[in-house]
Design goal:
The protein is mainly α. The protein contains 4 helices and no strands. Helix 1 crosses helix 4 and helix 3 runs antiparallel to helix 4. The model has no long low-confidence stretch (mean pLDDT about 95).
Amino acid sequence: MIELIHECFIDALGMPPSDEQINNVTNNMPAELVSLAERLGENDKEVRDQVYVWLNENINDFL
């Protein structure tokens, strides 16, 4: 999941996240999204799309 969060930050902000930001995102990600990633894998298109949308909607919470 770390790689996916890293990619989303770069796409959204043009800069990589810090380790602290990655931890904050991981700790605050909705349980249903974590469950989906565990079931389908983080490289699944649906998972990647949903993480990307959620992170972009909440990016200001992690700056």
